[in-house]
Design goal:
alpha+beta, Serine Threonine Protein Phosphatase 5, Tetratricopeptide repeat, Heat Shock Protein 90, 5-stranded mixed sheet, 23 helices, 7% strand, flat
């Protein structure tokens, strides 16, 4: 075990060293660069690490491309094309980019475009903005060399736009300074490029341009032109059997149809988009659009079925993420275990050497003890971190059990059953949607450390709707978000707001004829503030009563979570209780939670 671990570390170091040497000399001595990269490739094959093989193969293929050896380029990259699920998307995108150059030199422009646009599709999926900038730049230089200035400008602008999205964009290319900014500018450049495209009815480039135009017209609010451009793109794609970007084109067409009120056609388009993609994130996006189409057409039953399908997809994503996290933790544990065994073995060797060499015994003994102490301290720290993670998981489980209150769930389901028996389809469908949304959000959010304010808002809205049903509409509520707050990207811990809202119902408005609960998400002094206010009888604001309020909400859990987040995440949360027990004014109780600003 010791020798294997040492070999793995040494093998990776050798590969990195060989790649660095090859890159240092390839411009002046391409033959030597190939010798170095071939040695690195041999070591990568011996390691049987798909990610490392892919990384080295991409570099090796580039050198063969520079020597104009197309067959060797394709042979080197074949491993990536045969194992797309085992290699990093960034490496796979680079492989298709290199093949685009080979096809342009030796086959023709159509085949080159197929490779380049496949590279673009993969790089978009990987959010590899630097790779996108390079691929678009290659296309721009090709069309510039062909003296097709409008087409070259289109790709140069695309390259510049993606370069600006990359944190190191200026290093990708220095000649492009303007962004692909604004839909009007995009429309002008894309139309000019389309006008210069030859054989539009059978052109891959025309299909892509029409697909882009569909999205641009939609952004500009011109749904008729968006639908016309999208259908033209689909017509060309079907004619030439070009499937890259097909799913997004179906989606663009569906969004245009949705904007025009053509709900049935939009549903068909979204179903086609779902059927033509294997990317889970896209399936989520397309299913959400399909649910919207069903709802706007009034087909709530179909919307409910689509919501179930969306839930299954999200479950798959969560399962995959959980499996990846477990695999990462397991690998980390095995690595640390191996490291510990290595340290112990090294300590034994040092002790044996001390016994054989009496003159250096004291010095070697001291070194061994220091090393052993370092190991002990290191693993003590690791154990501390593991305990913190276990504590977080335990708190999350307790909070989840508290939120999935059987009594509340039973009453909510009885209320829904009541409307079903009355044959009130509208209310029963709405409450079923609230119930399924609440369950889905609670279960999904329980495995996350932070969620968006938008997600927390949806959970609280569904929770209050069901509580209102359970309490026979004895109270009203509102859930609002400050317009200055970026609800999609700003994050707070999950399941933090709901216990306080539940407390406002049970200890605040319960028993009132005109109860009112207001939940507000606001932004103040670079912090997120969540206020939960009721118009109940209130409590004394003295310290002992504040503690009673905490206990009534199970805040021994909440307090532990606050302490855990403060220590483990450096994320301090402030809690303020504002209340007076005044039956005449009925000030009620106001809870203010202040969270540090955090983005997803």
């Amino acid at each position: 075990m010791c020798s294997f671990f040492s070999w793995a570390q040494t093998g990776q170091a050798d590969i990195d060293t060989l790649l660095s040497r090859s890159k240092a000399v390839y411009q002046s001595d391409l033959d030597s660069a190939l010798v170095f990269v071939n040695d690195a490739y041999r070591l990568a094959i011996e390691r049987q690490d798909s990610a490392v093989i892919a990384m080295v193969a991409v570099t090796k293929s580039f050198y063969h491309f520079t020597r104009d050896e197309p067959q060797k380029v394709e042979e080197t990259l074949q491993f990536l094309f045969d194992n797309p699920d085992k290699v990093p998307l960034s490496s796979l995108g680079q492989a298709y980019n290199h093949m685009g150059g080979v096809k342009y030199r030796h086959v023709g422009m159509d085949e080159a475009l197929r490779m380049y646009f496949k590279a673009i599709e993969i790089q978009e999926q990987a959010n590899n903005f630097a790779g996108l900038a390079r691929t678009y730049l290659n296309l721009g230089m090709i069309y510039n060399g062909l003296e097709k200035k409008d087409l070259a400008e289109y790709f140069f602008e695309k390259s510049a736009f993606n370069s600006s999205r990359n944190s190191q964009g200026n290093q990708v290319h220095e000649v492009l300074n303007e962004n692909f900014a604004g839909p009007e500018n995009q429309l002008k450049i894309t139309l000019n490029a389309l006008q210069k495209t030859e054989n539009k009815e059978r052109s891959i480039l025309a299909a892509i341009l029409y697909s882009d135009l569909s999205a641009i017209h939609y952004d500009l609010g011109d749904y008729s032109l968006a639908l016309q451009s999208g259908n033209k793109a689909l017509e060309i794609m079907n004619r030439i059997n070009f499937t890259t970007n097909l799913q997004l084109t179906h989606y663009n067409v569906g969004m245009a149809q949705l904007g025009l009120g053509q709900f049935r056609n939009a549903q068909i388009s979204f179903e086609k988009a779902i059927a033509t993609t294997d990317i889970l994130k896209q399936k989520v996006q397309f299913n959400e659009a399909l649910i919207r189409a069903h709802r706007e057409s009034g087909d709530y039953r179909a919307a409910f079925e689509a919501q179930r399908s969306l839930g299954a997809i999200k479950d798959s994503i969560n399962t995959k993420q959980e499996n990846d996290r477990i695999a990462e933790i397991t690998a980390q544990f095995e690595t640390e275990k191996q490291a510990q065994e290595i340290e112990i073995l090294e300590g034994d060797v040092q002790l044996q050497a001390a016994q054989l060499k009496n003159q250096r015994g004291i010095l070697i003994g001291v070194v061994a003890l220091v090393a052993l102490l370092g190991v002990i301290l290191f693993f003590a720290y690791k154990n501390h971190k593991i305990k913190q993670n276990l504590q977080f998981s335990e708190l999350t489980q307790k909070l989840l059990q508290m939120q999935l209150n059987p009594h509340f769930l039973f009453n909510a389901l009885n209320g829904i059953q009541y409307f079903i028996r009355k044959n009130d389809t509208k209310k029963s469908t709405r409450y079923i949607t609230n119930f399924s949304g609440l369950m889905r959000n609670i279960l999904e959010n329980s495995v996350e450390k932070f969620i968006s304010i938008e997600e927390d808002h949806a959970t609280i809205s569904d929770f209050l709707a069901l509580q209102q049903l359970v309490h026979n509409n004895s109270f009203k509520y509102s859930v609002t978000i400050d317009k200055n707050l970026d609800a999609q990207n700003t994050a707070i811990p999950p399941m933090f707001t709901q216990p306080f809202v539940e407390n406002a119902i049970i200890h605040g408005v319960s028993g009132l004829k005109e109860g009112q609960i207001d939940v507000r998400y606001g932004f103040e002094d670079s912090h997120v503030k969540v206020e939960i206010q009721d118009n109940g009888k209130g409590i004394y604001s003295e310290k002992k009563n504040a503690n009673s309020l905490h206990k009534s909400m199970g805040t021994s859990i909440t307090k532990q979570r606050m302490e855990n987040l403060s220590k483990a995440e450096k994320y301090p949360i402030e809690l303020e209780i504002i209340s007076e027990n005044d039956l005449e004014t009925r000030q009620g109780t106001k809870i203010v939670l202040t969270f540090p600003m955090k983005y997803l």
